[in-house]
Amino acid sequence: MSVFKKNKTRPRSKASKREGTKRHHFFSKWPVWVFWLGGILSAAIYLLVFYSFFVSPFSFRWRAIYGDGNYPDGYDVRGIDVSHYQGVIDWELVRNADIKSAPICFAIIKATEGVSLKDKFYEQNFYAAKESGILCGAYHFFTPDESGKAQAEFYLRHAHLGKGDLAPVLDVEKIGALTPKELCAEVKTWLNVVEDSLGVKPIIYTGYKFKKRYLSDRMFDAYPYWIAHYYVDSLAYKGAWHFWQHTDCGRIQGIKGYVDCNVFNGSEQELLELTIKE
User: Fold this and answer.
1) In whole angstroms, what separates CA 163 from the centre of its chain?
2) Which of 46, 90, 94, 242 is least enclosed, having the fewest CB within 10 Å?
């Protein structure tokens, strides 16, 4: 005789049977197409949510991967901005290139960052671009964890701007640990030091949303603005602006890979009014 007792399966209760039958009858009342429609709607909602939160906020990066540059119509004065990321540039080819039949009129070149970083291609780019006949400017990338005064002095020592060059440019994209008020104070210090030295108001570069959120103080209204806003038909910023960086994946003869492309909101003569006079 076995020492193990056989497990007896408990018979399913009549109530359970009735409950299962009810569920079966409930779903059987609906036609098959209802379930297909529900599935399709659920998938559509999922894709919409996924796109809204994970794709749309970074769509300009996706487009850059596939080289989808955007070149707005209606502008005759066009230019580029470069740094060491573009590597060695053939400026003669750049000078003879065009965007929508408009030549490359100006180039704004990264000079410095913070209080210790000098772009390794700055001098090579700056002087080669000038020799090719392109109007040149130099920009400083502002770091919020360093003194605005110290950054301005570092920029002035290395940018070597002079008469006929575009006004100096301050690139402000980060707030760091500063409050908005503190950021504005440090930025204004940089602008004051550089303006006192070169006798011209610097140009402020920033993103469309960053401008609205952190640099909307009216004390900056007197400065020329260079706004970055990609993959739109027109610049959404409603205030006065001089430059619009409309793409970060432009293609220009003489430059390997992508380059930032810009338009100037005015004529060539008006562009020359933004140069250093002495």
Assistant:
1) 30
2) 46
Tokens (6 digits) for 226: 């260079």
Return the exposure string of 173-205: e unless at least 16 CB atoms fall within 10 Å of the residue's CB, then b: eebeebeeeebbebbebbbebbbeebebebbbb
Calpha distance 252→18 (Å, rounded): 75
Number of domains present in the structure of the chain: 2
Nearest to 245 by CA among 57, 60, 98: 60
User: Could you tell me if 137 and 203 are in contact, meaning their C-beta atoms sit under 8 angstroms apart?
Assistant: yes
Active site residue 173: yes
Is residue 276 within 8 A of residue 259, CB to CB? The reply is: no
Q: Clarify whether residues 52 and 84 are in a common domain.
A: no
Where residue 90 falls (left for φ over 0; alpha for ψ -120 to 50; beta otherwise) is beta
Please give the full DSSP string across 129-140, using - where no structure is assigned.
Answer: HHHTT-EEEEEE
Over residues 47-88, the pLDDT tens digits come to 776 655 554 444 444 444 445 568 999 999 999 999 999 999
The DSSP code for 82 is: E
Active-site residue identified among 173, 195, 268, 270: 173
Q: pLDDT category, 24, cuts 50, 70, 90?
A: low
Query: Is 33 domain-assigned?
Result: yes
Domain that holds residue 150: 70-272
